[in-house]
Amino acid sequence: MGAEARLKALGIELPVPPHPMATYVHAARSGNLLFVSGHGPVRSERITHRGRVGHDLTIEQGQEAARLTGLNLLASVREALGSLDRVRRIVKVLGMVQCTDDFTEHPRVINGFSNLMVEVFGEAGRHARSAVGMGSLPFGMSVEIEMIVEVSGAAVRRLGTRRSRPPRPAARGRRR
Amino acid sequence: MGAEARLKALGIELPVPPHPMATYVHAARSGNLLFVSGHGPVRSERITHRGRVGHDLTIEQGQEAARLTGLNLLASVREALGSLDRVRRIVKVLGMVQCTDDFTEHPRVINGFSNLMVEVFGEAGRHARSAVGMGSLPFGMSVEIEMIVEVSGAAVRRLGTRRSRPPRPAARGRRR
Amino acid sequence: MGAEARLKALGIELPVPPHPMATYVHAARSGNLLFVSGHGPVRSERITHRGRVGHDLTIEQGQEAARLTGLNLLASVREALGSLDRVRRIVKVLGMVQCTDDFTEHPRVINGFSNLMVEVFGEAGRHARSAVGMGSLPFGMSVEIEMIVEVSGAAVRRLGTRRSRPPRPAARGRRR
Lengths: 176, 176, 176
Hints:
homotrimer; alpha+beta; CATH 3.30.1330.40; 5-stranded mixed beta sheet; 7 strands; 24% strand; disordered C terminus
């Protein structure tokens, strides 16, 4: 079963990718690697989980934030590739938690994201990872996650944001 | 117009790349990806912007620091490649801001860097990105930025620092 | 002399790779790049260096932590590749130090790791790097380091943890 079919079977509907909040794009491809920007717990253009895990949020709320962040990342991957079925593997993840200085359970928080990837992609969802604690994150977001994905097939026309013009041909993953 | 010509048209002169402050190199290439080390706001081997954005520095000063950091990154890219015209695309950026714990405007700070990339490379300067807040950065630097660049053509002889000997042939981007 | 022979000549014995502490794998390969998860100063499944460098630990103790972290990273690389002789180059490193907010000597701490890489791999051990200060790290670890390694040859059967089943064939570095 492909990732798109599995999403449907799980009853998961991906959100609309939020607009980048500054001068950057959601995802940039080079060869067969898709580098996906840091995303956060956003729904309908609003941040749902602000504050520090371990103080303002429980670990469980942090896990929710990480899972929602994962849905937004998948939405941006689908936007870049056309379909999640073109994902070969989730390769590398940096999971960042805005938390108190004495917080120690970052891996449990980021599991909210990692478990979603295994639900959607099976073994291909297992990834190398670092889970760490940040002093602060944009707009007070409690979680920010970026990732590198291995993809199959030729590059699609439009990478990046809905607002940006297509990048130069040479930058669009032409066979190297 | 190539990136080198655009730099000239913009009247931008790149600084001399600062020496790495420890056992590492400015940039390492693998295949068509050039991984560039974390750089900071340094001019003539001196750090120009120390302290925490939101306390010691304004957002505008943080943006200046990010732009200067971008110039240093470009200087190291030119050193590694011979010319910025061999840059195909700025792919992925991690922008780190040393700031107060309640700071929320990291994206605006790192835009000082990202806008420079679009000025110099046009659409190929648009990148995937995370902008985050660090507890501390080396030597009290207010900004540190690392990036991954897609490059064209064969690898040049000498990668890394001016002081290091060339890496082993197998490590120099031989066709994979 | 290959890396395995050099390890022996240096009298260095690699530890058993610690189990991942959550839903992720030690390392994931895509093409000729091996992405290695964040590792810490662990020996026999116990964290040896907890606390903040600059307060609970001296710089020298931080360097020890970084060197031990490097040994654990190499253990995971050997597990993924079968032999360290298949490492072409250490490409990119993110060295994270849990330290006080006024700490400035992150590069010296992470040199404990970087010097080990040069001891083991010679010039191929020199890498692009960022060394930064984190608000907190999992389980109070004083150091966490992740890295990207360029490897030679075909992918081996089993990537990731000792516990995980093999990833899908398409994800195992098949020619792209």
